[in-house]
Specification:
Order of helices and strands of chain B: HHHHEEHHHHHHHHH
Strand content of chain A: under 5%
Shape of chain A: elongated
Helix content of chain B: over 70%
Largest interface: A-B, 39 and 47 residues
Radius of gyration of chain A: 22 Å
Number of strands of chain A: 0
Structural class of chain A: mainly alpha
Largest sheet of chain B: 2 strands, antiparallel
Number of helices of chain B: 13
Distance between the termini of chain A: 13 Å
Oligomer: heterodimer
Structural class of chain B: mainly alpha
Radius of gyration of chain B: 24 Å
Chain lengths: 269, 326
């Protein structure tokens, strides 16, 4: 178990490092400019590894430059998801009116049809990058909140928390200083999985054409490819490679989260 | 019993929130509600037009009366009026919803069946090489976006080998009654349904597999094994009964998941269902139509949750025989 999860971690980190490098230093990977025009629909060659698109831009370059925005939206909305989830999760573990109100909010958000609500809201509120991040976060925190709630209830039965209660510490102090630090494992693995689901959500929205056109992500690329007739030109790699990148990025986060959860289990034993 | 009542209550609360959201959004956001409720830009309308729409939409009345009117439009089933398409929202949706359900329902059933039987099989033999392999396979499949599955299938099966048609739900000239209509429809639906099934199956599988794996450690399973019962018998007459409830609850949840997925797939396969209607509505800024679609999807979701809850109650022996026997 130990060895297998370690190799998953290494594989995940290597993949993630490649994507991070592409996000931070795109010029390392490609010598072309983002908006450098070549003849349109060139087939793949050693100058253009994936060919060029309808406007004559190099597809591989677009892919490399799209990494930054895809990762940014995924990571930012996952961080917001984490904050919302931790907040509602700890509130829901409280007794009394606050706890049952937070529970009710969680239960309602579980049921909402996510994608359709997101689309309708984003068209009402406008789909700028920050709006998308906020909207995706608002509709993704439920899973985190449930996990946090279960863990807080679990921890509250432990002697060290009971001890704090007996010593007369304020509830807020107990939550902030004694409960939250013990949630770090759960929050870390929820963050890693959250990045996945946020990236998936964002790319689906962008693919449908509801993304932020000023910050084109991989989903936006596929949307353009689909709309501008990549099918008829048989530029299949233009359609498929951004999707494969989404898959690899998700897998890298998944592998790392596998290591995190395996480590938690082995500590628990 | 109490659990199911709480579920029911949650579903209704969720429904109510969508209704309130629908009512409040155009009225609270910056900008004239007339612009939101008609979908026309404010600067393109003359003052007389704005006044006409304002009174036609009853925006000059008090908010509670507006809300009452809105509720009445939901109850009598018109769901408001789309000024862009010049038709009541309900008639627009009614024309399209059939196609969405034709893709969604088979996919819900198929993906749930795959999840149930494969998950049961692998959960029973957990940590065997076969279980590990199928886990890894479906975890990878779970990270593939649904549009990628659709695009790859289209490229492989429609363009490289022309086995399936890649657009619409019927060939030209096919109408109900024409011989071969059914076969033609099935051929058109095969790929969208397959795509949606592939997209939904991994999460269903992982859910059922983990539930089954947890149950496989129970003592009654061990005892059944010791009695020398066949694995099939143990899986289907012992374990299945105990994972029936989480399975049925999951079935209800996957309806709304698959309707969301169908949105993407209808757009790729150019099927004129509700998802296509929604994307059209967003592109033309037809706000009443968007709200109507959100309402109908929530309604479908609430109905499926209530139905699965009733089913859970019906098969739950604790409820059927009375709590005292349990």
């Amino acid at each position: 178990m130990r060895k297998r999860s370690l190799s998953a971690l290494i594989l995940g980190l290597i993949l993630l490092a490649a994507f991070l490098l592409a996000a931070l230093f795109p010029t390392l990977f490609t010598s072309h400019e983002l908006k450098q025009a070549f003849p349109a629909w060139l087939p793949p060659s050693h100058i253009h590894p994936l060919g060029t698109n309808a406007l004559g831009y190099d597809i591989f370059t677009e892919l490399v430059y799209g990494t930054r925005d895809t990762l940014f939206i995924g990571v930012m909305s996952s961080i917001m998801t984490l904050v919302l989830g931790a907040l509602f999760g700890t509130l829901a573990a409280e007794r009394g009116a606050i706890g049952s109100a937070a529970n009710a909010v969680i239960n309602v958000f579980v049921l909402l049809p996510r994608l359709i609500t997101l689309i309708v809201l984003s068209s009402f509120l406008g789909s700028s990058q920050w709006n998308l991040i906020a909207l995706i976060a608002v509709f993704s925190w439920v899973g985190t909140a449930r996990a946090v709630r279960a863990q807080v209830i679990h921890l509250s039965a432990h002697p060290f928390i009971e001890n704090c209660v007996i010593q007369g510490y304020h509830r807020g102090h107990i939550v902030l200083r004694h409960l939250l630090p013990n949630l770090s494992d759960i929050l870390l693995s929820r963050f890693l999985l959250g990045v996945n689901s946020c990236i998936m959500m964002e790319s689906t929205l962008s693919f449908l054409g509801f993304g932020d056109l000023y910050h084109p992500t991989w989903g936006t690329m596929i949307n353009f490819a689909y709309k501008r007739g990549a099918f008829l030109r048989q530029a299949y790699n233009y359609l498929v490679t951004p999707g494969i990148c989404i898959m690899l990025l998700s897998l890298s986060f998944y592998f790392i989260s596998m290591y995190v959860s395996a480590r938690r289990e082995s500590i628990g034993e | 019993m109490k659990k199911y009542l709480r579920n029911l209550f949650n579903a209704l609360a969720c429904f109510l929130i969508v209704i309130i959201l629908n009512f409040a959004l155009p009225r609270l956001l910056p900008g004239d509600p007339v612009a939101y409720l008609t979908g026309f830009a404010e600067e393109e309308m003359t003052g007389a037009q704005v006044e006409h729409y304002r009174s036609a939409l009853h925006l000059d009345e008090s908010l509670p009366r507006q809300f009452a009117r809105y509720l009445r439009s939901l109850l009598d089933g018109t769901l408001g009026y789309s000024y862009k398409k010049e038709a009541p929202v309900s008639s627009l949706i009614r024309g399209r919803i059939g196609y969405t359900l034709q893709i969604t329902l088979p996919a819900v059933v198929l993906s749930a069946m795959i999840g149930l039987f494969w998950g049961l099989h692998c959960g029973y033999r957990k940590d065997s090489p076969g279980d590990r392999f199928s886990n890894a396979l479906l975890i990878v499949l779970n990270t593939v976006p649904s549009f990628l599955i659709a695009l790859v299938l289209i490229i492989a099966l429609c363009f490289r080998r022309r086995i399936f048609p890649y657009t619409g739900v019927s060939s030209a000239g096919m109408a109900p009654g024409v011989p071969g209509f059914l076969a033609d429809r099935l051929l058109h639906l095969a790929l969208p349904v397959f795509t949606l099934t592939l997209a939904a199956a991994p999460s269903r599988y992982l859910l059922m597999r983990n539930t089954a794996a947890r149950i496989a450690d129970e003592k009654y399973v061990l005892y059944a094994k010791q009695r020398g019962l066949s694995p099939k018998r143990i899986q289907f007459s012992y374990m299945l009964k105990n994972i029936a409830q989480p399975f049925i609850t999951m079935l209800g949840m996957s309806v709304s998941l698959c309707i969301g997925g169908s949105l993407v797939i209808e757009n790729i396969f150019s099927i004129g269902g509700m998802g296509k209607l929604l994307t059209d509505a967003v592109y033309t800024l037809d706000y009443p139509l968007m709200q109507g679609i959100l309402f109908v999807t929530t309604l479908i979701m609430v109905i499926s949750i209530i139905a699965t809850d009733l089913l859970c109650i019906a098969i739950d022996p604790k409820v059927r025989l009375g709590e005292s026997h349990a």
